[in-house]
Amino acid sequence: MEEGLIRTAPDREKAKSILKMVETTLEMIDSIDPRRFTSHVVKEYYEVIRELITVILLLDGYKTHGEGAHKKLIEYMEKNYGEFKGYEIFLLDELRVIRNKIAYNGFFVTDDYLDRRKQDILMLIDKLRIIIYKKL
User: Fold this and answer.
1) How much of the chain, in percent, has pLDDT values that exceed 70?
2) Closest CA to 111 of 35, 31, 29
3) 13: pLDDT confidence band, cut at 50, 70 and 90?
4) Residue 81: alpha-carbon gap to chain centroid
5) Is the domain defined by 5-135 classed in CATH 1.20.120.330?
6) Domain spans of the chain, in order of start
7) pLDDT for 82-116, tens place per residue?
């Protein structure tokens, strides 16, 4: 077994519960002024993506833990889901790094970043949702 991954029984009910939370987070993002709160919007988009990947792992019978758990989620997707192209994996990791800068350093994301990346972020979210709904 890979370091950082723990084998668990697949848990459909927990997966569905996390999906409900994801939907409420997306509703919240839509209610926020993205120009005024760009960093918060980007951070929440990352959290949505992270939760969706967590659901995929949950349905596959895994969970992550410990130092580097978020990075392990991205590596898992890269290794096990070939439908994700290099630039998508790069974007996942870029969002992880930006989220860490926001959370730990008070980093402010410029609104032009969101302008440039929003469509790609939304496509990633849709792609992850499709994988999940095929598994449920």
Assistant:
1) 98
2) 35
3) very high
4) 14
5) yes
6) 5-135
7) 999 999 999 999 999 999 999 999 999 998 999 99
Q: The tokens of 77 are what? A: 């997707």
pLDDT value of position 119:
98
For tokens 């972020």, the residue is 121
Residue 26 CB contacts under 8 Å (≥ 6 apart), including other chains: 48, 125
